[in-house]
Sequence to fold (514 residues):
Amino acid sequence: MEKYYISTAIAYTSSKPHIGNTYEIVLADAIARYKRQKGFDVYFQTGTDEHGEKIQQKAEAKGVSPQEYVDELSTEIKRIWDVMNTSYDKFVRTTDKKHEEVVQRIFEKLYNQGDIYKGTYEGWYCTPCESFWTETQLEDGKCPDCGGEVKKSKEESYFFKLSKYQDRLIKYIEDHPEFIKPESRKNEMINNFLKPGLQDLCVSRSSFDWGVPVTFDKKHVVYVWIDALSNYITNIGYDVDNSSEEFNKWWPADLHLVGKDIIRFHTIYWPIILMALDLPLPKQVFGHPWLLFNNDKMSKSKGNVMYADDLVDIFGVDAIRYYVLHEIPYANDGTITYDLIIERINGDLANVLGNLVNRTIAMVNKYFEGTVTNKNTSTEFDSDLIDLINKLDEKVEKRMNALEVGAALDSIFELLRRSNKYIDETTPWTLAKEEDKKDQLETVLYNLLESIRVAAINLESFLPDTSAKIFDQLQIDNKTNGFVNDNEYHVGTPVPLFQRIDKDKLLEEINNRQ
Ligand code: MSP
Fold:
């Protein structure tokens, strides 16, 4: 079996993640489930990033120790990932002792081989992003990434000589067009950061202590990004001169999935650290776009934050999975509002998917007491439908391989829509009135069940609970894809998949709650 290692960014344990941060784990989950379905041996890693100045400040403000603070948040983040029904194989934490020890040995190795040296840092620091900036990089005196306040800092620090690896990295990126996706992010990295020349990176902090201590200089802690990025290798058994079999099996990762704001850390700093450790680079880094609230950045201060668990309480897990996976296109930001969620549920999930399954199962029960076979009496409308059924697998695969997850979902819904249209074209209720059209009616229903079965197989990675409910109603565990000519279906009773929502009523209820 071919292996597939996929990771998400590890979430900061500074505050509860909102639906935007939660999007990434759902996206990774859809890809991981899809690869498993395609027969890959998948390893899917996620977790929490628990050190740094911001977390120390938050813990102090709350009057608890940083460890207590991160324990609570890491548990909460894991709970939310579980609420979203994500199938990660390992949930890692950067306060894990084994991880900390390997980070210390990585830092020592880089120091011993002369990649890291001691100096003094003077510049600007953005605590929420845990990022260093020069005067000229600031935009209107603010952090160019998050637009927040930066503070002047001067402290004794260790530095990594990034410039030493710069040309090698540029060549690598140019020789490996698949390495950074989407294309626009790659150009941004080359033109904005690599071509102008890399500054040495400050890789330790000495003005606070919530971090991994530098073994040979205890007043320093390892810069949070070096600590965090290393999670991708420390948790699969990497060690500086004694890596495990497990490490050799999984590394290099096939896909690091990260948000567009941290693509720089993953396509410049991380590859350079790996080059310095003499390790191969991950095969691909995908910088996904963001989910915005009504086209605006979600933030507590703006009062526009939506949380995944609240949304799941109102709408159900698969509706929210569908919304985020479908609504965030490949390269541009997506948006979320209650209005839009309700529109999608009513339009796509209830009208197109729910209705099709419900109507079809009900008709099979009504006209054939639940059992139909293919009577092969064709209508003029069959070939178009059967053709779409047969092409679905290939279309979804092509789009998933390009990480166009929203488009993959569109292909499935194209078949579902076509199937509803097929019902309108063939009008089973008219066929049912004529005794000599019985075989034709049975064939029509058979074709519809085939379409539903193939759509449900393809939907499994995105909406696992819904697919399971469809398989239950079809009473099958046959996962053959493509149109099957001689199957017999014995369906169960119809169970509604998605209820239509009364928009005004629900919006009012939501407003009253807030
Ligand atoms: N701890 C770092 C990652 C270290 S990885 C070695 C971090 N954490 S985070 O909690 O701030 O963000 C986690 C992920 O959520 C990041 O990939 C980030 O880009 C993503 N998102 C944050 N806000 C988002 C949206 N509004 N929409 C989509 N993704 C978003 O960064």
